[in-house]
């Protein structure tokens, strides 16, 4: 599987890269805006924080297909092998086709339905990002959408992968992976919740305390 962090926090990526088997880092315009660093600064910093390994994803801002292609070229001038995120609108589908013809890899984003994701795959996207939590939050079923999308891609667009996004809990991420979904991107708080359960900390502290009580000093 491929595991990504959905963040522009360079220090956090540097801290977590030795701990998680990271395939790279995904961003979106809100994440970049939140970090307040321009793309020209933050993308190279993220690449360095990953140790030069792993893929980076950043999104176009234009709404029209030709302008999206220009945005994609600007992004690839910053990071030459960057995967370009394109919202799956009507214009986005046209842009994905144009970018595929130019050999530029894309991720179809803002995917709220399996049919929308399938169309992006057929247009030539390498990845499709269904928004699991946002689907749940609006009364849909994010995990079911991931399942359907995976089946559709397997049958009709086997070269495209689901990269599931928008998670609020580790449980959502696990349920998604249990469907067989091959790649996910996690926000920092969800990734950290996976390794910082209070019960684990308490168990380790108890081992240390028992050891200290018995032998009067810590360590072996
Ligand atoms: C993915 O492409 C999106 O950038 C992101 O995962 C959305 O997550 P959110 O719903 O937590 O904003």
TrEMBL record:
Pfam families: TAL_FSA
Listed GO CC annotations: cytoplasm
UniProt main location, coarse: cytoplasm
Gene3D superfamilies to which the protein is assigned, alphabetical: Aldolase class I (3.20.20.70)
Reactions that this protein is recorded to catalyse: beta-D-fructose 6-phosphate = dihydroxyacetone + D-glyceraldehyde 3-phosphate
UniProt keyword Cytoplasm, yes or no: yes
Record-given protein name: Fructose-6-phosphate aldolase
GO molecular function per UniProt: fructose 6-phosphate aldolase activity
Domain of life (superkingdom): Bacteria
CDD domains linked to this entry: Transaldolase_FSA
């Amino acid at each position: 599987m491929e595991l990504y962090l959905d963040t522009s926090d360079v220090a956090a990526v540097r801290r977590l890269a030795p701990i998680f088997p990271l395939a790279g880092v995904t961003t979106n315009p809100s994440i970049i805006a939140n970090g307040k660093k321009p793309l020209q600064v933050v993308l190279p910093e993220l690449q360095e924080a990953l140790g030069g390994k792993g893929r980076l994803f950043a999104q176009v801002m234009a709404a029209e297909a030709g302008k999206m292609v220009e945005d994609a070229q600007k992004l690839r001038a910053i990071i030459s092998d960057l995967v370009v995120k394109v919202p799956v609108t009507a214009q986005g589908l046209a842009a994905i086709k144009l970018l595929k013809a130019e050999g530029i890899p894309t991720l179809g984003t803002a995917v709220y339905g399996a049919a929308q994701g399938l169309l992006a795959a057929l247009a030539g996207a390498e990845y499709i990002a269904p928004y699991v939590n946002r689907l749940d939050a609006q009364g849909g079923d994010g995990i079911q959408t991931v399942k359907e999308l995976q089946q559709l891609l397997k049958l009709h667009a086997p070269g495209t992968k689901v990269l599931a996004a928008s998670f609020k809990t580790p449980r959502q991420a696990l349920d998604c992976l249990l469907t067989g979904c091959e790649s996910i991107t996690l926000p920092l708080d969800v990734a950290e919740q996976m390794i910082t359960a209070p019960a684990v900390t308490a168990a380790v502290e108890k081992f240390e305390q028992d050891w200290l009580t018995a032998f009067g000093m810590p360590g072996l």
